[in-house]
Amino acid sequence: MNQPLDAFWMPFTANRQFKQAPRLITRAQGMYYWDDQGRQILDGQAGLWCVNAGHGRPRIVQAIRDQAGELDFAPTFQMGHPKAFELAARLAAIAPAGMGKVFFSNSGSEAVETALKIALAYHRVRGDGARTRLIGRERGYHGVNFGGTSVGGIVGNRKLFGTLLGGVDHLRHTHDPARNAFSFGMPAHGAELADDLERLVALHDASTIAAVIVEPLAGSTGVLVPPVGYLQRLREICDRHGILLIFDEVITGFGRTGAPFGAQTFGVTPDLMTLAKGITNGCVPMGAVLAKNAIHDAFMQGDERMIEFAHGYTYSAHPLACAAALATLDTYAEEGLLTRGAELQEEFGRALHTLRGEPNVIDVRNLGLVGAVELAPVPGGPPQRAWRAFLDCWDNGLLVRTTGDIIALSPPLIIEREQIGFIVETLRAAIRKAA
Ligand SMILES: Cc1ncc(COP(=O)(O)O)c(C=O)c1O
User: What angle do helix axes 417-434 and 340-353 make, rounded to 10 degrees?
Assistant: First the structure.
């Protein structure tokens, strides 16, 4: 490594520790990365939950190249370019019925801000502008901007940043290892935790609440699969009180749970849905909000010469991102990747659950092609076991992700059987050594 590492202030990284022993990725193809030593590393986390079709897919690469030569940039404020409209229609076609409107952003964090603003503005344009409260959930992750940090529920991401947005409250999280440890797929217990929304309604009154935002399956906090019936119950309570339900599908979108979106896997349709990551297979930054038609239509009133929703990004529906996303959707469709997680769930889950009984393993969770192994914390210090396992996996050619003492897995959806075996056995050896 001959270039200095000092200048890059790295995101969500222990900078000093990293720079003493850097891990540099220089190339990727299919299921694999290569580091600067030329070592091959199996990508067990699809980049950062985003490279769902695997790396270096020729069709996507070509589409980006072609687009850069044909139309590098075009504004979408009072203008348009064809691929933006085509992509919106293609996304609506795979979304749950009735979610036919798409607003583009450049990241998941921006998609979240956009969804929260749509929710607030929706109530206001309908003359119900006292609905200003936003409800998130403990352990939720909704990106790093102020709205998303405020509705988010991970203390380490919140505590540095003051009082955040006012008028935000949180539901209890759904993690209940005492009743649900080692559940295969959706845990049996905990539907009643959705009733926590009734508690917040009783406290604040429904007439002040605009929206509830949850990840249908919480990813970043360490893979919390929703209990059977929980999301249905949340939907019912929102409906009863005129509260919008937002699903943050930045991770669960694009096949991760075995259907195009978590909404379809879990059989619950939200009012707004945030997307990013897998939308372009991680190749070009892009996010989006899918909205129910009725929400969009509520804005389409008044003087037609006026802008209906004063919001947007310079790079909303950037041509390179649209081209990448269209080629990504083609790749997903051709290879059946948006439902491959359902086909592999049994095998992936069974393999992962063989880690039960290994030292310090206190839970294994899985759904579709996402999973987690939780290790008992070492008392009285920062999380160490999962980190040691992460380093050992890296040394042995496997990239996994850790959050505290949880090791999360979300491999590209093109994964093959032998690669599932490699992941689990590499992890097993690492967990034993980390004991
Ligand atoms: C559920 C969820 N929402 C939002 C985000 C933020 O997305 P981004 O990092 O693209 O801003 C993430 C990122 O992991 C996420 O998992």
Answer: 30
What atom of ligand 1 comes closest to residue 48's alpha carbon?
14
Pocket test of ligand 1: the residue of 13, 141, 213 to mutate, having most ligand atoms within 8 Å of its CB, is: 141
If you take atom 12 of ligand 1, which residue's CA is the nearest one? 143
pTM: 0.98
Cα 108 to ligand 1 centre (Å): 4
Show pLDDT as tens, one digit a residue, over the chain (435 residues).
556 999 999 999 999 999 999 999 999 999 999 999 999 999 999 999 999 999 999 999 999 999 999 999 999 999 999 999 999 999 999 999 999 999 999 999 999 999 999 999 999 999 999 999 999 999 999 999 999 999 999 999 999 999 999 999 999 999 999 999 999 999 999 999 999 999 999 999 999 999 999 999 999 999 999 999 999 999 999 999 999 999 999 999 999 999 999 999 999 999 999 999 999 999 999 999 999 999 999 999 999 999 999 999 999 999 999 999 999 999 999 999 999 999 999 999 999 999 999 999 999 999 999 999 999 999 887 889 999 999 999 999 999 999 999 999 999 999 999 999 999 999 999 999 998
d(CA 384, CA 76): 47
Q: Are 278 and 288 in contact (CB under 8 A)?
A: no
Tokens of 259: 């259907």
* Pocket lining for ligand 1, CB < 6 angstroms: 107-109, 112, 141-143, 215, 219-220, 248, 250-251, 276
Measure 357 CA to ligand 1 centroid, in angstroms.
32
Closest alpha carbon to 116 in 133, 100, 95: 133
Q: What whole-number distance in Å separates Cα of residue 225 and Cα of residue 253?
A: 14
In a mutational test of the pocket of ligand 1, which residue from 12, 109, 254, 401 has the highest number of ligand atoms less than 8 Å from its CB?
Answer: 109
Extract the tokens encoding 322: 């649209």
